[in-house]
Design goal:
mainly alpha, about 210 residues, Serine Threonine Protein Phosphatase 5, Tetratricopeptide repeat
């Protein structure tokens, strides 16, 4: 069955919980190659989203995601705010007016989000950023849906691809962001942005199973 506005709000609430639960883990990852604030910043943004959810029950899905995007931009520090905010804004624009989501809408939103992140951050695959998790995730989603997979199966494959991409950041040298200043010393560390991206995508997959999407 289609995902409803209520389902989307449930997913966003779970995302805020997951980021909060992993705040210290994300900060620990960032302390090795960044400013040691990724977890704190992301948690601040998603807690702000959680507080706004009760006000969004009468909005369409596009407006909900755009509100989340603006919230992240205004509350999350560093590069994460503009990047994650842009992802949500672009996904929201792609789903403008939607009251329900079909599986194909996930791909439309995902591709829009990825395009926004690529344009905003100017990173490419292999730069050791969130793009390394997001790019293979969207590719896996597309492949799964094209072959007729149900939404839950497609999102499971999306999550697995994001996890593989996340782990793939460990052996590579950072070429973007604060981590790039470390040069070869960035090798051997998992990128925090790719990690938070995976956590959000995994939450989407878990929510899809819970709601029977």
């Amino acid at each position: 069955m289609p995902a409803t506005v209520g389902d989307v709000l449930k997913c966003l609430r779970k995302m805020s919980d997951v980021i909060h639960e992993n705040k210290e883990y994300l900060t620990e990852l960032d302390s090795a190659i960044g400013d040691a604030d990724h977890g704190t910043n992301m948690d601040r943004g998603f807690q702000a989203i959680a507080k706004k959810l009760p006000e969004l029950v009468d909005k369409d899905i596009g407006d909900i995601l755009k509100t989340c995007g603006m919230t992240l931009i205004t509350t999350v520090g560093g590069a994460s705010g503009p990047l994650y905010g842009t992802a949500f804004l672009q996904a929201g624009a792609a789903l403008a007016g939607k009251q329900e989501l079909e599986p194909g809408d996930l791909l439309v939103a995902g591709e829009a989000a990825l395009k926004g992140v690529l344009m905003r951050g100017k990173a490419t695959l292999g730069d050791k950023t969130m793009v390394d998790a997001l790019t293979p995730a969207i590719a896996a989603l597309k492949e799964a849906l094209v072959t007729g997979a149900k939404a839950t199966e497609a999102l499971d494959k999306t999550s697995m691809a994001a996890e593989t991409g996340m782990k793939g950041t460990i052996p590579i040298q950072a070429r973007k962001g604060r981590a790039s200043y470390l040069g070869e010393r960035s090798i051997g560390h998992q990128d925090p942005g790719a990690t938070s991206t995976f956590l959000l995508i995994r939450t989407m997959a878990e929510t899809a199973h819970e709601i029977g999407f």
